[in-house]
Structure formats: C-alpha cells, structure tokens
Design brief:
This protein has about 120 residues and is of the alpha+beta class. The chain has a single domain, classed as Aminopeptidase (3-Layer(aba) Sandwich), CATH 3.40.630.90. About 25% of the residues lie in helices and about 20% in strands. Strands 1, 2, 3, 4 and 5 form a five-stranded mixed β-sheet that branches.
Length: about 120
C-alpha cells in the first residue's frame, strides 16, 4: 500500500485498524474498518486475511459494512461469502496502456474505495 494512503487511514481510523505481523515484527497484512466499509485489506496469506477479517467484524457499524473485493482474488470472494457477505454489483476497472495486471493481486482482499483502489 502507498504510504500516504496508509497514513490517511491510520489517522482517520486509529482504533479501527488491525495489522498482522511475522515473527520478525514486519507487517504482513492490514485491514481498516471504515465507517461503512472494510478496506483497504491486504494480507500475505489467506490465513492472515481471515484472522484480520474476523477481528474487523468485531467492530461496531451502524449498517452492515461493505467490502470492495477485487474479482481477480477468488479466495477473497469465497472468504467474504463464507462470512455472510453477498455480491451486490461488480465494477470494471480500466487502465491506459499495457496488458499485464499489477503484481501480487492475490494479496489484495479489499479496496479502500472504488475511486482510489
């Protein structure tokens, strides 16, 4: 994740950010519980992703939270469906130039917003 985005969400939701760390103390995943949505949500392993989701779902929300899951991460889709989420709609993302997808998309479990990813 980009540093300025991380800083923004940490400052905006300090008590609603969860991280996972490896034995060396390096951050290996994070999830942010925004007011009405979960994300950004990234994790190096599926097990970390599920643990982060379980923690985030303990937060209070006025309405059931939304999650913007990239359709390229099939494991993320299955995970959120297992926790009771359902697909409402899908968005297409466009890019100018190139045909290769960004690297390591399997680590992105949810976008922060539809606009900034």
């Amino acid at each position: 994740m980009h540093v300025s985005i991380d800083t923004f969400y940490l400052a905006s939701y300090p008590e609603r950010c969860f991280v996972s760390r490896n034995p060396q103390g390096h951050i290996t995943g994070c999830i942010v519980g925004q007011a009405e949505a979960l994300g950004p949500w990234i994790a190096q392993t599926h097990e970390e992703a599920e643990a982060l989701l379980a923690h985030a779902l303990t937060l209070a929300f006025q309405h059931p939270p939304q999650i913007r899951v990239p359709t390229s991460n099939h494991r993320a889709l299955a995970l959120v469906q297992a926790y009771g989420f359902r697909e409402i709609r899908a968005f297409k993302h466009m890019r100018l130039g190139g045909i290769q997808h960004p690297q390591q998309r399997e680590h992105i479990y949810a976008l922060a917003t539809a606009a900034i990813g």
